[in-house]
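Render this sequence as a predicted structure.
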Amino acid sequence: MTDWSERIGATTDGEARVTFDTPAPARQALDGTVVTPLVHLGILEVAGSDAERFLQGQTSAQMSLADGDFAPLTCFCATKGRMLANAQVLRVAPECYWLLMEQSLLEPLKAHLEKFAVFYKTEMRLRDDLAAIGLIGHDAPALLEARLDVEPPHIWHQHQHGDQLVVRHPGPRPRLIALMPIADLEDSWQALTQQATPVGNAVWCLQDIQAGLGWLSASQQDSYLPQMINWEALGGISFKKGCYTGQEVVARAHFRGQVKKRLVRLTLEGNDVPTVGSELLDAEGKRQGEVFAAERDAYDQVELLAVLTTKEVTEPLTVDGVRCQRQRLPYPLERLDPEELATHKG
């Protein structure tokens, strides 16, 4: 993790987390507009005359859809179909793409892709000169436009203005990510905080959970098929494109209905946040899944995403001896083709 957040007064709070002296930060996101440094995210740039062709053979996205407007979700898989990383693809120039993803996976994914990149006219680099700022709230789109002079895009779309690029993510409140040079960070932060309250990035991660959106971290590499985190239900897999690494396994699991685990939303009855990978046990004490992500919400309740078996289980489910309650996902568990999503502006 880079230390650019120190420039705007953030305090490091464990791995890939920062905080401010703002009381009840999750509550602030319910009642108003907040701004947060997304230090847990980063950019891997892939550029060159063969960049699109290279990525087409490695990623689940149909690269022609990444047109500078639509910014599709994608994932990179090992040969057995397990995910090495998931990301959002941003086209920033005719021969240049940014992969927005978890910071901890930037180096591992770059090392993996370099094994194939030698056969293409393409180069990769970590864009540690960029900062990612998140805005959450009903007034966030208007604030972004007023303070940074950037037009807010639609969900899973992007808008570029000079050196700044903005993408929009789903969630219980409007959510936007502004990517900008670190050199511009302090001026932009000062402009935004005139009307938005600074909060730690755990608030953003909580809203990812509430959106049913799971981002892999380094400890989860090579553990899940894309469908196990509902990636096809979010438009993150094109089943209409040609081959890519792991494609045969991913397609077979889809068309033969062989997905045995799914991402689910849960709340805990206790308020201790479990660690990622904690076992999810049924009423008989048998392991049925594991925690994928967990954060404390505005009511001091723990919300989490878990990868859980699709088989019927004996409930209640527990994590570390604490009972869980199932919550609804905000999307149907059915295939959403990115080719359809690309034209959706709602």
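Summary. The chain has a mean pLDDT of 96. DSSP finds eight helices and 19 strands in the chain.
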